[in-house]
Amino acid sequence: MKKIITFGEVLLRLSTKEYLRFSQATDFNADYGGSELNVATSLVKFGMDAEFVTRVPDNDIGKCAIMEMKKHDVSTNFIIKGGDRLGIYFIEKGASIRGSKVVYDRSHSSFSTIKKGMYDWEKIFKDASWFHWSGITPGISQDTADVCLEAIIAANKLGLTVSTDFNYRANLWNYGKTPNEIMDKMVSLCDIMLAGDYAAEQYFGIIPEGKTKKELQESLCEKLMQRFPKTKKIAVTNRRNINALRNKWSAILYDGKTMYESESYDITYIVDRIGAGDSFMGALIYGLNHFDDKKALDFAVAASCLKHTIYGDANLVTSEEVEKLLNGDSTGRVNR
């Protein structure tokens, strides 16, 4: 099977230990992650060939980020080096009724200053069948938006399936353009979407109609497909926050005619919810390449449910572990 290409920024993740607040922390755990890298890592864990494309500084921190990718067998053949620094994000983990908190420090990062023409997309896409990006990338800077659109156009020209995760971040989009000015053309060239009502409103002013959750989700999908007729499938995840350590998690997948609904999982002790949406997207891409739509949805929800039990950005589970949960085994028993 041909490889999957993902494109975005890798960040240094600095996490307070246990449940400490930033003001209490004297040291931090250092890891690496980023939405599109997380997707690539999931795909590799499921046995697919995934390539992550980005830019990192030519220093020890940039080299450590690449080492982390290679540790998980993510291909790094087209990563370029340059710029001044790797972007950083800080996270303190919430507990009970106190939510988690994220602070970004990514201004003037190596990735934020990439330029059109730096990447040979025809060469990158030569042995690929799928290209994935998220709304975080065009939100970083005009340059990252330009390069991302360049990649999307090239992927379409070469016949790749293009997927996107809306991933709206309110603290981005501060370079003088509104999200709609940038995202409309980019999303119009996509085949698969991971959407949400809040992001759809922020990007496109789309507000779903209906009285029930199901009616609202179906309305959202229909309105998005009307606006973006190239779209073939839209997924929407559903998170019900009971507290910081307990959530209910499910999703739907809409193909223009049928809306598939997944089982709802009650996740009673969350280790780390960062990257859950990315783990869903990675598993959905895997599922759509191996199963029918309903099984693909169920696989993605189960995989992302398991992500909540794993520290760090990436979902480090295998397809066998996902299938085990799908088959009803949520006991957590030791495998010997």
Automatic annotation (TrEMBL):
Start and end residues of each Carbohydrate kinase PfkB domain: 1-313
Keywords attached to this entry: Kinase, Transferase
MF annotations from Gene Ontology: kinase activity
Family: Belongs to the carbohydrate kinase PfkB family.
Protein name according to UniProt: 2-dehydro-3-deoxygluconokinase
Native source organism of the sequence: Urechidicola croceus
